[in-house]
Amino acid sequence: MELSLSVHSKSIRNRNRNNRKPHIDADVREMVRRNFTNEYEFYYFCKQRLYKQYLALQFENNLH
Question: Region labeled Disordered — which residues (predicted)?
């Protein structure tokens, strides 16, 4: 049983690798980060808002 579990975990790790992914320089990554700052902020705002709505619905359902 241990052998098959070990083989299975190795196959999952190997499956998640992307050997064709190109290397991206640090300066390019930083430029993209700077250019997408507003988009990231908006995404996290929306995520937080949806989570608050979810909590409010859970609270409301628990009252009934």
Answer: 1-22
18-59 pLDDT, tens digit per residue, is 778 888 999 999 999 899 999 999 999 999 999 999 999 998
C-alpha–C-alpha distance, residues 36 and 42, integer Å? 10
The alpha carbon of residue 46 and the mean position of all alpha carbons in its chain are separated, in whole angstroms, by 15
Distance, CA of 6 to CA of 4 (rounded, Å): 5
Count the helices and strands in the chain (H runs, E runs).
3, 0
What span, in angstroms and rounded, lies between the C-alpha atoms of 42 and 50? Answer: 12
- Integer CA distances (angstroms), 12 to 5, 6, 7, 22, 45, in order: 11, 10, 9, 22, 34
